[in-house]
Every structure is written in C-alpha cells, then in structure tokens.
Amino acid sequence: MGEVAVLFRLMPRGVETDMRRMAEGVRASIPTGVTVRGMQVQDIAYGLKSLLVSVVMSDVGGLLPAAEEALAKVSGVESVEVMEEGLL
C-alpha cells in the first residue's frame, strides 16, 4: 500500500468563526490512519478566511471519504473541498 497526500480547504460558516478553535477541532476529529502534516489560515476576501489542512494517509479505499466526512462535522465548518491529491 502506498500513501496519499491530500490538501483540504475548509470554509467557515462566517467571518466570525474562530479559526483557531476550528483548527483544534480538526486535530481532534481526524480519523485513525490520517496524519495532519500542516494547517494554514488563508485570507479569501472581506474578512473571510479558509483553513488549509494538509494530511497524509494510506491509499486504502474509503479513508479519503471518511476524512472528508470527519472534517465536515467540525464545529464552524461550512464546507470541505479537496484541493489537491497525490501519491507519495
């Protein structure tokens, strides 16, 4: 089995969303077998920001959708988008 690197973009519910708390929620909710490699807050426009989350996981079937679902359940997250995905 190989490994996959994935970059997710998490959009908050609004400009008032605490990005630090959202990042803590990501670390707490990430499924077993997925390792967070980094997080970065990115300015979008008019005070709106997104959280970029870089993870590495095994390429077994079903792990990517499980990670995406877990991230979508984090408090303050409006949407989750896979920005990049590639084999390591």
3D architecture notes:
The chain has 88 residues and is α+β, with helices and mostly antiparallel strands. It has one domain (3-87): Alpha-Beta Plaits. Helices cover 24% and strands 50% of the residues. The chain has two helices and four strands, in the order βαββαβ. The protein has helices at residues 19-29, 63-72; strands at residues 3-12, 34-45, 48-58, 77-87. A four-stranded antiparallel β-sheet has the order 2-3-1-4, with helices on one face. β2 (34-45) and β3 (48-58) form a beta hairpin. It is elongated, with a radius of gyration of 13 Å.
What is the top-level CATH class?
Alpha Beta
The rough form would be described as elongated
Strand content: over 45%
Tally of domains: 1
Number of strands: 4
Structural class, from secondary structure content? Answer: alpha+beta
Q: What is the CATH superfamily label?
A: Ribosomal protein S6/Translation elongation factor EF1B
Question: Count of helices?
Answer: 2
Please tag this protein with its features.
88 residues; Alpha-Beta Plaits; four-stranded antiparallel beta sheet; elongated
Quick recap of the structure?
This protein is of the alpha+beta class. The protein is built from two helices and four strands; from the N terminus they run βαββαβ. It starts with a strand and ends with a strand.
Structural topology:
Layout: E1 3-12, H1 19-29, E2 34-45, E3 48-58, H2 63-72, E4 77-87
Antiparallel strand pairs: 1-3, 1-4, 2-3
